[in-house]
Amino acid sequence: MRLSRYFMPVLKETPADAQIVSHRYMLRAGMIKQTAAGIYSWLPLGLKVLRNIERIVNEEQERAGHVPILMSTIQPADLWRESGRYDDYGEEMLRVRDRHDRDMLYGPTNEEAVTDIFRAHVNSYKDLPLTLYQIQWKFRDEIRPRFGVMRGREFFMKDGYNFDLTKEDALHAYNRHLVSYLRTYERMGLKAIPMRADGGPIGGDYTHEFLVLAETGESEVFYDAEVTDLTFGDREVDYDSVEECEAVLKEFTSRYARTDETHDEALFNEIPEERRRSARGIEVGQIFYFGTKYSESMGATVVNADQEQVPVHMGSHGIGVSRLLGAIIEASHDDKGIIWPEGVTPFHVGIVNLKQGDDEADAACDALYKAFVSAGLEPLYDDRKERAGGKFATMDLIGLPWRITVGPRGLKNGVVELTSRKTGESVEVAPEEAVAKVKAIYEAL
Ligand code: ATP
Ligand code: MG
Fold first, then answer.
1. Where is the Aminoacyl-transfer RNA synthetases class-II family profile domain (predicted)?
2. Is the CB–ligand 1 distance for residue 159 below 6 Å?
3. Is 396 within 8 Å of 17 (Cβ atoms)?
């Protein structure tokens, strides 16, 4: 993309009402535009990152054997009356009435809707296990929408639902989700720690939240410092293997790590004092096992091998896809702007032309641009007639991991400058070498 032809409305001023850094940078970099409190439109740069996060979530869900669907955002109130949640859910539910005076709502979550699909089509234990998931907009009329996309009213969420014959099978689904979530967050360059949490309105005894440590996080968490050293890395886990998934769960959750709702002071104090930590965290996901709560109230049963009708065991699993943009920025930025991890960056590399209009510099930039495109990468070429300082400030703000600076002086010596956004380190290399280096970095992801 050439910046002169793009739509990236960068703001010079810091927006006054944005309290936290991720919100400020998302507005300044022209990624989002507020439509109403807690409701945003996604501008091109923000949309690119949102799509990258969505793609990673999809890839990891499919790797785990989960099946994508897309449910409607509008749901009939009657479904929620069946589960008993229509009255319980309270003011967070956006309720509307259609022209026939039927009560409808904008889905805040989809346990009822997915159970309705299941009961309409699945009758036998032979069709289990089954996990259906979607990535879809949700609406929750939050009392205090704030921090930009972190606590929106309209937000993008991956929600998945497993259907299993037995509790053991459903717990395997739970563990499988834990493994897939660990992989998902790491691919986004994030450290998200699974912590024992509270079931809340969805209910259930088994639940973990995934938290990214950040001062601006809304949750209070307590953990053993050793949990922050755990990384999933590139190990291969067989998702069908009960033992392998359980081993990962044990490894990642046997240390003390809990949210304030489940915090146990006595247990916490058993950890050596120098390893005890209390901090703030951003919840980027949560997994639940809740048994037959919805299948019993809504009649989602299957015949088992003994020809008996039994309610299925279920769980649900959520990832805050739009919240993740904020969480990633909170975890990765400096005072100049965002530092995108390579896994989610909106463009792979920025090209800065120091002397737009200079034949040699223009030709070198065009050649670099073409070379990146043929390598399957997306460059953002700042081809505006602007001062170098302004171009650098924009590149730093929007946070592309790699920048190539091209100017007449370097070209005389046959070199361009390749700069890492993260470390600020630069090397002078031949243009072909710059392309090869950047290409190798992305290939290794
Ligand atoms: P919270 O405690 O932050 O209100 P929740 O526990 O109610 O979230 P879940 O039902 O577990 O949310 O939803 C799954 C994920 O969706 C959460 O882990 C979070 O990342 C994201 N999410 C929930 N509410 C919002 C919101 N208002 N804005 C953006 N993302 C949200
Ligand atoms: Mg939650």
1. 38-341
2. no
3. no
Kindly state if the Cβ of 321 falls inside 6 Å of ligand 1.
Answer: no
Residue 323 Cβ < 6 Å to ligand 1: yes
Q: Report pLDDT digits (tens) over 165-195.
A: 999 999 999 999 999 999 999 999 999 999 9
Q: How far is CA 365 from CA 187, 316, 392, 425, 428, in A?
A: 30, 49, 16, 21, 15
Torsion angle of the four alpha carbons 101, 107, 110, 115, in this order, in degrees rounded to the nearest 10: 10
Q: Which atom of ligand 1 is nearest to the CA of 145?
A: 27
Among all bound ligands, the one having the nearest atom to the CA of 39 is 1
- Provide CB contacts within 8 A for 254, sequence distance 6+: none
The token pair at 128 is: 């289990």
Top mutation candidate among 157, 282, 330 for ligand 1, by most atoms within 8 Å of CB:
157
> Per-residue pLDDT tens for 291-325?
999 999 999 999 999 999 999 999 999 999 999 99
Whether the full predicted model's pTM is greater than 0.70, yes or no, is: yes
Neighbours of 231 (CB within 10 A): 11
76 pLDDT exceeds 60?
Answer: yes
Q: Output the CA 159–ligand 2 centroid distance in Å.
A: 11
pLDDT of res. 17: 87
Task: Tell me what pLDDT residue 272 has.
Answer: 96
Q: Which residues pair with 41 in a beta bridge?
A: 33
Question: For residue 157, which atom of ligand 1 is closest to its CA?
Answer: 16
- Going by pLDDT thresholds of 50, 70 and 90, the confidence category of residue 389 is very high
* Domains within the chain, CATH numbers bracketed: 3-338 (3.30.930.10), 349-443 (3.40.50.800)
Ligand 1 near 86 CB (within 6 A): no
Distance 81 CA to ligand 2 centre (A): 22
Instruction: Determine phi and psi for 295, rounding to 5 degrees.
Output: -65, -35
Mutational pocket test of ligand 1: of 93, 146, 262, 286, the residue with most ligand atoms within 8 Å of the beta carbon: 286
Strand ranges for 73-182 from DSSP E? 74-76, 94-97, 103-106, 130-139, 154-164
Q: From ligand 1's centre to the CA of 138, what distance in Å?
A: 10
Atom of ligand 1 nearest to the CA of 200: 6
Q: For residues 196 and 264, is the Cβ–Cβ distance under 8 A? A: no
